Amino acid sequence: MSDQLAIATVTAALQQILSPAVAQAVNGAKVGFSRPDGGGTQPAQVNAYLYQITPNAAFRNADLPTRRSDGSLMTKPQAALDLHYLLTFHGDDTQLEPQRMLGAVVATLHSQPLLTRQSILSALTQNAFLAGSNLADQIEAVRFTPTSLSLEEFSKLWSVFFQIEYSLSVAYQASVVLVESPDTPQEAPPVLARKLYVVPFRWPAIDRVVSQAGADQPIVAGSTLSIQGKQLQADTTLVLLEGVERTPSAVADTQVLLPLPTDVHAGVKGLQVIQKIAMGSPPASHRGFESNVAPFVLRPTITAITAAAAPNPPGGTNVTVTVSPNIGAGQRAALILNNLAATPPTAYTSAATVAAADSAQVTINIPGVPTGQYLARVQIDGAESLLTATSNQFTGPLVSMP
């Protein structure tokens, strides 16, 4: 393949190919690669100007994949490019020099459309600044083909050359130039044994996640999740919850049961069913199929609550709440108090408190709450704890505010 000097080498090699034919067509004519210049009586010259590059459709993805799953380089990345040249012809129009040079260029590129190794090496010899270019080693030869541009396309192209008069010109495309990265890939050892595995395409899908106690029952610490869907059963079925792969207690094709682990925090959660495939000798689990992400709400449970007057500042009351499961570091906790004995009933809500550590306790400051006994609820990332009720009346949890 070729390196970062490939584009410049193609231009220099094009100059080497065209120079003899142009000089023969018009005595003393030369080939350059500068911007198109104005017309007039300037010396006879052909300008090969590279005005655009585009990705080559056939080779643009031929190097993929370039990296392994761990990020290491497996093949050299290469950019596949097409080079677009505008060849302009300048000379004495009374002697038809531009047209004579145009004929020579068209004839040369038609009879010799490929860049040969010899022409590339000759260009490197004439241009010391291209020393080190390895375009000559590229397996795919660079081919020049004329580009058919309409009058409108030609006028748009020439409009980018500000205040330059139009000169007789023709467009060519050089394809393909493969520019490789200088990075060296890490070679993997050869394959010792080939093993092919064929499995049916059965993608697991989760319809909903509810409590095993009933679809209308809240999910709290100690609940068992009922993950319902289709095609959930496989040789190895796991549940991904909070970034940890967990083993369910029971697996069927339409339902997976998972007792809630104690390290899962309250809030709105998402889980996936993961099906591993055993491959290799001895067999080892490999990544297989994964379901959609299904949400559920894990409600916190208040196991203890106390209140004490807070010093000034900040003032108000500090309420220490013990919950299950733990509040994770960075989770937001808010306290809601209701005094049903007051007339009319009163309610107070604290500002959100961000937990500093993974703990069962959090202290929440709430200002402006009168002395009395209140029903208490806590919200962890929007998931609200439950109140207990007896005979259609709420009975707890209760907190006495000083």
Features:
mainly beta; Immunoglobulin-like; 3 domains; six-stranded mixed sheet; six-stranded antiparallel sheet; elongated
What features would you describe in this structure?
With 402 residues, the protein is mainly beta. The chain folds into three domains: 6-180; 205-298, Immunoglobulin-like, CATH 2.60.40; 300-401, Immunoglobulin-like, CATH 2.60.40. Helix content is 13%, strand content 41%. Strands 7, 9, 10, 13, 14 and 15 form a six-stranded mixed sheet that branches. Strands 18, 19, 20, 22, 23 and 26 form a six-stranded antiparallel sheet that branches. α1 (6-25) crosses α2 and α1 (6-25) packs across α3 (117-126). It is elongated. The protein starts with 5 loop residues before the first helix and ends with a strand. The mean pLDDT is 90.
Give the structure's gist in a few sentences.
With 402 residues, the protein is mainly β. The chain contains 4 helices and 26 strands.
Please tally the β strands and state the result: 26
Average predicted confidence as pLDDT? 90
Task: Report the order of strands and helices.
Answer: HEEEHHEHEEEEEEEEEEEEEEEEEEEEEE
Beta content: 35-45%
Radius of gyration: 38 Å
Can you lay out the helices and strands and say which pair or pack?
Layout: H1 6-25, E1 30-32, E2 45-55, E3 78-90, H2 97-111, H3 117-126, E4 143-147, H4 151-159, E5 169-180, E6 205-211, E7 219-220, E8 224-230, E9 236-241, E10 244-246, E11 250-251, E12 255-259, E13 267-279, E14 284-290, E15 294-299, E16 301-309, E17 317-327, E18 332-339, E19 346-349, E20 353-354, E21 359-366, E22 372-380, E23 383-384, E24 388-390, E25 393-396, E26 398-401
Parallel strand pairs: 1-2, 7-15
Antiparallel strand pairs: 2-3, 3-5, 4-5, 6-8, 8-12, 9-10, 9-13, 11-12, 13-14, 13-15, 16-17, 17-21, 18-19, 18-20, 18-22, 22-23, 22-26, 24-25
Helix pairs in contact: 1-2, 1-3
